[in-house]
């Protein structure tokens, strides 16, 4: 014979204050748990979307980011002639020689400057990154002091809106277009003509060379050959790998912080649930005796109390998730320790995270409820009845 | 004890009530409870006096309102209308705080379930009401020891309630009730939770308090054996007094 | 009064429940203390900066260099008494995860600017005289087992190649707010190598670090320097060391805010746990509170009983939590020293812990008290049995 679920539910309802407090604590924990998963997911998504699997990035050997790298013009032309480089529709080579520098610009609304990446691009740069689309204005004219800004940059930095001007490298640069790069790292960048930027910054070398592979599986052979070529001092990475490496430290930091917090928080919540369930058992000793006397099995009592704890966890989980889902409206922008540039990413909720968070809340309820439920099921009928 | 006919045998003669002043005046008291949308009258137009030194037993079936009447006299519940004057003070006119002060000095309580504080020893339980007085530590000690001597529990004063039998716990409760030397003692079914032997002991103790110390006692009971110890027995039925002096 | 005794006995009446609650508070206070310490660690660079030091960098951004030729003009600005310069070297020791800050600096003036780096005189002299010499912080030397006289090879990320240095000295911090995980070597060594291999990058410095005679001159000196190089190929941005450090902190503000939020959330969670314990306890004791009231004790006394018990529990947990924060912070530092070179529990953090403990205790007692004080005695007594 099973004790009906409504018994567990009504008991939670009767002790509303305690139920609210316990479920509230659990909701906060699930909120944090979900937030951390969402953050990791958002970062991951940004990184994965930023790179393309069949694009190759070449930077100077030993330099960890494009900003630190430098590739001489001569070396860049050697790479250009490699057979692995794909040809575009018009027969041009799908390759871009880019220059990447960091400039510090003031944010809108505050005086606090933050670092922004300026990318000097070639004609093919846009075509090789299908995630990047011009949404407003037009492309810069070649050999002009015109630039286009990523949506996130134009929104957040002073002078980066369309029609506005930015001053750096002793020149004024007019923003003639805004591009949308989705959730990728490019939306935190400003793009301009590579040659113009090299002149302005007096930087005679490129930072990186990016090209599309003719055959996506030909990467390993290319890498081995190019890295052992005595004329070149470069290293080659798939674009996806390149961006993942760039944020490795940040990702690791968030992971460690997130995991420690989740563990600490869940300990707190489990303790809360355990206290609540022990009290529930203690308050209802006589009731348990009565149920047993009526013929309910030990198993049923165990089940009823576990059900109560699981319900508690579920309520907490659902509430926590509800509030966590609003986090999707937020974008986190922070300094990437490895590149010294801004990295923006948003909380991303996936179906998988919903399941994980709910499962997590049920596990918390279960762990908190199992000992008290066992205690309840082990009571001797006579003793239980006598306490009334 | 040699098989006494009543609990009060050998305790001296009862107080001569005729010459005693009236100490409790209950006038036109009404009380009703609200259960959902229903008003349930509990007490209707209750009138009676209690004289100093009187040992009064209130009897009546369950739901007759006897406990409510006791609570009203003890100042832990409020009347709907009517007045209760005790020792010259109209307690129905006092507010919460004044009432608490009044109770601390004028009323001693004895409950059916003893209601001792489980984390305090017998000594500390008895001392509890004295903490509301201005007595020094040594004076308090003296009073507590005396009260415990009266109930014959001096040897168990460092025990916790859980280490005492029901009868002993009730005796501690009685000591706690008398330690402040209150104007009236109120007892709600003091023997209700005890076996016959312990019950007899408790009643004998109550008698002694009445006859030897001249305490005014108001006791609610439905046990006729317990009521035998009282001088005056009043019957309550459906919220009205049904007077029958012995 | 025996009230305190009563409070303590009441608090431990339900050993299991009180034990669990205290455990919960201990964990929460520990986490709170660690998070606060982490926030402090974030500001360690800002805290350690001196008001007498200014940083000059290229106004475009920190990755752009300044010509070495600026040094003489800077020296002429009144109020400047020391001029040093350097480059962020960004060298990697064996593998990338062994990250630690390393700089090429003009050694003599740099050490003069940083009296908080304490080096034995003999080591200082040999370091200054060895063009390929380097000084390392005590912690980083211990971590990699470097001794004075050892040769250390760093792989350049910004300046290509493998660079060999001889450890000539190991510096200690004057106090524990000094970062002991850095390495410094001669800027001349870097510059001469650049002249040979990449002449375009020679005679460039990443930053100037200057000392001023009086902190009050900071604004004036900065304006003068920046005006001197206005409209040149490399315009400068001069700010106090504190402002410079702060600019890094503010760029990671989002993480900082998140950590601070989380440290508040953790206190709210534990508040819910303790409030729950107190609510249950008070519900079970309503009868007892009624007896106290019957005996003539007022609402204040009962409020005191509940708040007192709540405080006994929360402060016990707080005390244990604070006690544990110190060894845990120590262990954390050993494990994650790369991220946080300076990580210690400040006295201020302990005060915040205590404040949090008291707050939790008080808030947890609020609702049960309200209920216990307002209950009618007759109802309270009826609940007994």
Describe the structure.
The complex is a heterotrimer of chains A (388), B (246) and C (385). Chain A is α+β, with helices and mostly antiparallel strands. Chain A folds into two domains: 5-48 and 248-386, no CATH class; 55-212, no CATH class. Chain A is built from 13 helices and twelve strands. Chain A has helices at 5-14, 16-50, 73-80, 125-128, 151-156, 194-201, 219-228, 239-246, 248-283, 285-293, 298-324, 351-378, 381-386, and strands at 55-60, 95-106, 113-121, 133-137, 146-150, 165-168, 171-180, 189-193, 208-212, 234-238, 331-335, 342-346. The longest helix of chain A has 36 residues, at 248-283. Chain A starts with a helix and ends with a helix. With 246 residues, chain B is an alpha/beta fold. Chain B has one domain (22-238): Rossmann fold, CATH 3.40.50.300. Chain B contains seven helices and ten strands. In chain B, the strands form two sheets. In chain B, strands 6-7-8-3-9-10 form a six-stranded mixed beta sheet, sandwiched between helices. In chain B, strand 4 and strand 5 form a beta hairpin. In chain B, 46% of the residues are buried. With 385 residues, chain C is of the alpha+beta class. Chain C has 14 helices and twelve strands. Chain C has helices spanning 3-11, 15-42, 44-48, 70-76, 107-113, 121-129, 138-144, 187-197, 218-228, 241-251, 253-294, 299-336, 347-374, 377-382; strands at 53-58, 66-67, 80-88, 102-105, 117-118, 133-137, 151-155, 162-173, 183-186, 204-205, 207-212, 236-240. In chain C, the strands form two sheets. In chain C, strands 1, 3, 4, 5, 6, 7, 8, 9, 11 and 12 form a ten-stranded mixed beta sheet that branches. Chain C has a two-stranded antiparallel ribbon with strand order 2-10. In chain C, strand 7 and strand 8 form a beta hairpin. The radius of gyration of chain C is 30 Å and the shape is elongated. The model of chain C has no long low-confidence stretch (mean pLDDT 88). Classes of the chains: A alpha+beta (388), B alpha/beta (246), C alpha+beta (385). Chains B and C meet through helix 1 and helix 2 of B and helix 1, helix 11 and helix 14 of C.
């Amino acid at each position: 014979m099973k004790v009906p679920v409504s018994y567990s539910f009504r008991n939670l309802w009767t002790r509303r204050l305690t139920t609210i407090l316990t479920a509230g604590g659990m909701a906060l924990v699930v909120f944090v748990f979900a937030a951390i998963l969402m953050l990791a997911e958002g970062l991951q998504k940004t990184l994965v979307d930023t790179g393309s699997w069949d694009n190759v990035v070449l930077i100077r050997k030993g330099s960890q980011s494009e900003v630190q790298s430098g590739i001489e013009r001569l070396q860049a032309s050697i790479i250009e002639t490699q057979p692995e480089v794909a040809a575009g529709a018009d027969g041009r080579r799908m390759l871009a020689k880019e220059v990447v520098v960091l400039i510090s610009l003031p944010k809108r609304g505050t005086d606090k400057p933050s670092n922004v990446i300026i990318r000097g691009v070639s004609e093919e740069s846009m075509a090789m990154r299908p995630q990047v689309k011009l949404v407003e204005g037009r492309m810069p004219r070649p050999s002009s002091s015109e630039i286009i800004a990523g949506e996130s940059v134009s929104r957040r930095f002073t002078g980066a809106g369309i029609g506005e001007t930015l001053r750096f490298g002793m020149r004024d640069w007019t923003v003639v277009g805004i591009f949308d790069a989705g959730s990728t790292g490019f939306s935190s960048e400003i793009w301009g003509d590579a040659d113009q930027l090299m002149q302005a910054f007096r930087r005679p070398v490129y930072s990186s060379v990016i090209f599309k592979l003719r055959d996506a599986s030909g990467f390993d052979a290319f890498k081995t050959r190019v890295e052992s070529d005595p004329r070149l001092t470069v290293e080659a990475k798939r674009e996806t790998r390149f961006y993942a490496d760039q944020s490795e430290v940040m990702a690791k930091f968030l992971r460690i912080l997130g995991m420690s917090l989740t563990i600490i928080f869940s300990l707190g919540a489990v303790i809360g649930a355990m206290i609540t369930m022990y009290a529930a058992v203690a308050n209802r000793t006589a009731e348990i005796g009565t149920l047993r006397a009526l013929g309910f099995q030990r198993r049923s009592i165990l089940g009823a109390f576990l059900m109560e704890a699981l319900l508690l966890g579920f309520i907490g989980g659902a509430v926590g998730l509800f509030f966590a889902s609003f986090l999707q409206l937020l974008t986190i922008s922070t300094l990437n320790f490895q590149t010294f540039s801004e990295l923006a990413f948003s909380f991303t909720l996936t179906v998988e995270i919903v399941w994980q968070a709910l499962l997590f809340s049920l596990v918390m309820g279960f762990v908190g409820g199992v000992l008290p439920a066992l205690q309840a099921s082990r009571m001797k009928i006579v003793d239980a009845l006598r306490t009334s | 004890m040699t098989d006494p006919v009543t609990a009060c045998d050998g305790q001296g003669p009862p107080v001569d009530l005729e010459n005693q002043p009236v100490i409790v005046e209950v006038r036109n008291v009404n009380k009703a409870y609200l259960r959902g949308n229903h008003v349930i009258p509990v007490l209707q137009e209750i009138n009676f006096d209690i004289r100093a030194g009187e040992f009064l037993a209130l009897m009546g079936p369950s739901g007759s309102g006897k406990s409510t009447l006791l609570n009203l006299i003890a100042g832990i519940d409020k009347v709907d209308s009517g007045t209760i004057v005790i020792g010259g003070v109209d307690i129905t006119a006092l507010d919460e705080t004044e009432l608490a002060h009044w109770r601390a000095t004028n009323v001693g309580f004895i409950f059916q379930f003893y209601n001792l504080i489980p984390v305090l020893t017998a000594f500390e339980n008895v001392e509890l009401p004295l903490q509301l007085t201005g007595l020094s530590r040594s004076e308090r000690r003296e009073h507590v020891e005396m009260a415990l001597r009266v109930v014959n529990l001096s040897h168990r004063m460092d025990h916790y309630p859980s280490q005492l039998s029901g009868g002993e716990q009730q005796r501690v409760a009685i000591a706690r009730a008398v330690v402040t030397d209150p104007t009236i003692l109120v007892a709600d079914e003091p023997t209700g939770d005890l076996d016959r032997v312990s019950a007899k002991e408790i009643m004998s103790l109550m008698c002694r308090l009445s006859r030897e110390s001249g305490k005014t006692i108001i006791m609610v009971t439905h046990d006729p054996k317990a009521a035998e110890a009282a001088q005056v027995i009043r019957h309550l039925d459906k919220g009205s007094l049904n007077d029958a002096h012995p | 009064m025996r009230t305190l005794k009563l409070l303590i006995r009441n608090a431990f009446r339900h050993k299991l429940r009180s034990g669990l609650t205290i455990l919960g508070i201990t964990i929460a206070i520990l986490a709170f203390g660690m998070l606060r310490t982490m926030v402090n660690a974030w500001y360690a660079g800002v805290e350690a900066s001196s008001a007498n030091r200014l940083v000059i960098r290229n106004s475009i951004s920190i990755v752009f260099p300044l010509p070495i030729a600026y040094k003489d003009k800077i020296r002429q600005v009144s109020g400047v008494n020391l001029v040093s310069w350097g480059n962020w070297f960004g060298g990697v020791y064996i593998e990338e995860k062994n990250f630690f800050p390393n700089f090429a600096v003009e050694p003599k003036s740099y050490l003069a600017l940083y009296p908080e780096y304490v080096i034995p005189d003999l080591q200082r002299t040999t370091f200054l005289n060895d063009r390929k010499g380097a000084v390392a912080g005590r912690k980083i030397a211990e971590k990699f087992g470097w001794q004075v006289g050892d040769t250390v090879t760093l792989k350049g990320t910004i300046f290509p190649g493998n660079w060999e240095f001889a450890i000539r000295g190991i510096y200690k911090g004057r106090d524990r707010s000094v970062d002991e995980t850095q390495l410094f070597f001669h800027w001349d060594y870097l510059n001469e190598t650049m002249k040979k291999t990449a002449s375009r990058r020679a005679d460039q410095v990443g930053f100037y670090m200057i000392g001023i005679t009086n902190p009050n001159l900071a604004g004036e000196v900065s304006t003068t320097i920046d005006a001197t190089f206005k409209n040149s190929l490399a315009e400068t941005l001069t700010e106090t060391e504190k402002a410079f450090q702060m600019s890094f902190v503010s760029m990671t503000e989002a993480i900082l805010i998140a950590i601070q939020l989380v440290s508040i959330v953790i206190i709210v969670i534990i508040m819910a746990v303790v409030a729950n314990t107190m609510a249950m306890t008070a519900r079970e004791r309503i009868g007892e509170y009624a007896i106290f009231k019957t005996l003539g004790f007022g609402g204040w006394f009962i409020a005191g009983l509940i708040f007192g018990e709540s405080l006994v529990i929360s402060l016990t947990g707080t005390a244990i939590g604070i006690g544990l924060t110190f060894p845990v912070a120590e262990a954390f530092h050993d494990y994650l020293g790369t991220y946080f070179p300076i990580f210690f529990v400040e006295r201020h953090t302990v005060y915040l812990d205590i404040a949090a403990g008291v707050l939790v205790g008080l808030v947890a007692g609020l609702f049960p008290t309200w209920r216990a004080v307002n209950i009618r005695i007759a109802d309270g007594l009826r609940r007994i049995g």
